[in-house]
Amino acid sequence: MTDARLPAEWEPQSAVLLAWPHEGTDWAERLADVETTYVALVAAITRFEPAIVCVADAALEAHARDVLAAARVELSRVRFVHAQYDDTWLRDSGPITLRTASGFRLLDFRFTGWGGKFEASRDDALVETLEREGLFAHADRVPIPFALEGGAIDTDGAGTLLTTWQCLNQRHPQATREELSGKLADWLSQERVLWLEHGYLEGDDTDAHIDTLARFASADSIVFQSCDDPADSHYPHLRAMAGELTVLRTAAGEPYRLFELPWAHPIIDEGRRLAASYANFLIVNGAVLAPAYGDAADEPARKVLAEAFPGREIVMVPCRPLIWQNGSLHCITMQLPEGVV
């Protein structure tokens, strides 16, 4: 598939895709709390580009419209699409979009609920549903019978892919690293695949998705989640990951410029450690939307992202309700490249 290219997230976008939580999703127990994050997120997105919101039915659309209007969100910048979904983690069930000479290729990988942990049949059919609803323009959907989530990969847009061995090995334990590298490079039109061996977050269902750990900020820079507390269980793992990042090289053979994100204090809910990562930010046109957890590290994280993304506004979005379900801002969104909508 060498006629295609996987754009970096900082390239121009048509819109950001997300799905509104409802009582049929895992958010039911804390629906009011999580809706506050969704309202803040849609308000932030629509300052910079349109938001496309999946809703399960007309009643949910009417409800979402009401709460967004009450928050004075510009509804002309919001498009609602009816679709069935098991949950709202669209980073993992949404399309991975490649640019081609004639338009776009929507890679529709299998979504298995992170290795069969949760029911995911409707999420697995989401890309096909959105195509049938007429969301995409100049795009061909390509079903791929291989489990891969969008949160498991990150690209610099110039042929380098970053991922973690823990996640891909869990999904495909019989495949060698060389086999997985070849498949990813072929399907995603990459020239090379960089693997991280270390890094994880307690409470993470994804088996160490890269988007909670380390992200490209440009072709020669990486932003990563650090831990500076030797007493924290994450310290040895994230310290080892930081060491791995220092030895990675760009395609030109140079070391990456590294931006170290601060560590939030442990957030415990009903006796369970929640996976709070500042690496789970979302890049939009002209800005970076960053998760805020009501922690002293929120402002230092904003400053690091401002340094890593010069010229972009950094907008903090309250995401503490999201980590109750072990994900954050990037996990519930999928950017769509300019022209595909």
From TrEMBL:
Transmembrane segments: none annotated. One of its GO terms (biological process) is putrescine biosynthetic process. This is Agmatine deiminase family protein. One of its GO terms (molecular function) is agmatine deiminase activity. Pfam families: PAD_porph. InterPro entries: Peptidyl-Arg-deiminase_porph (IPR007466). Keywords: Hydrolase. It comes from Cognatilysobacter lacus. The keyword Ion transport does not apply.
